[in-house]
Amino acid sequence: MKTLPVGGRASFFFSFVGGPKTLEINIGINGESRTFDVEPRTLLVHLLRDDAGLTGTHVACETSICGACTVLVDGKAVKSCTVLAAQAQGCEVTTIEGLADGDQLHPLQEQFWEKHGLQCGFCTPGMILTANQLIASNADPTDEEIRHGIEGNICRCTGYQNIVDAISAAAAQMRD
Fold first, then answer.
1. Is 2.40.50.100 the CATH classification of the domain at 107-175?
2. What are phi and psi of 34, to 5 degrees?
3. What is the pLDDT of residues 63-101, one digit of tens each?
4. pLDDT tens track for 37-58
5. Is 153 in contact with 123 (CB distance < 8 Å)?
6. Rounded to 5°, angle at Cα 154 from 151 and 158
7. How far is CA 129 from CA 33, 38, 41, 67, 148, in A?
């Protein structure tokens, strides 16, 4: 009988197989500390939707192409379909549900509504969270900078101009 060498991929595989079936992880989600028992292979997007019940984070391509699953991890826009939940251990995750301040919409949410930056709305949560990171790093982005900043998020409905207008208006509102 042939045995696999110990080392490289094989040692990783065997340590994983022999390891715990679930991991206890602590994540801050929308300002609330949460503890979950997850399988090591659980993706952050599935933890948010299935375990935390936050369905505003959408699952679409599951290959990090579309950006519908974008959330903020410690303030940075991350495609949650490519991040293991365990990698978010100790981090603060913000979803679209956590962006508003109670009943008061965040300026990005408000301007997407006012400027018709959404049609079907499927891409909107990821688009808004990506835009939030953009505005946090550049309070007065040009239209070109906005287009560059959201290029990892795909919208199949709007043609993007209304999205750019909404982000620009939100940035102006946030500066005032």
1. no
2. -130, 145
3. 999 999 999 999 999 999 999 999 999 999 999 999 999
4. 999 999 999 999 999 999 999 9
5. yes
6. 105
7. 20, 25, 25, 10, 15
For the chain, strand residue ranges (E) read 23-29, 32-38, 70-73, 76-79, 92-94
Domain ranges of the chain: 21-98, 107-175
Domain 21-98: CATH class, spelled out = alpha beta
Distance CA 163, CA 176 (A): 20
The encoded tokens of residue 117 equal: 């930056």
Amino acid 90 reads G
Number of residues that make up the chain: 176
Two tokens at 55? 């369905």
> In sequence order, which residues have a C-beta less than 8 Å from that of residue 83 and are 6 or more positions away?
43, 44, 45, 73
Task: Give the Å distances, CA to CA, from 70 to 3, 27, 49, 76.
Answer: 42, 17, 13, 10
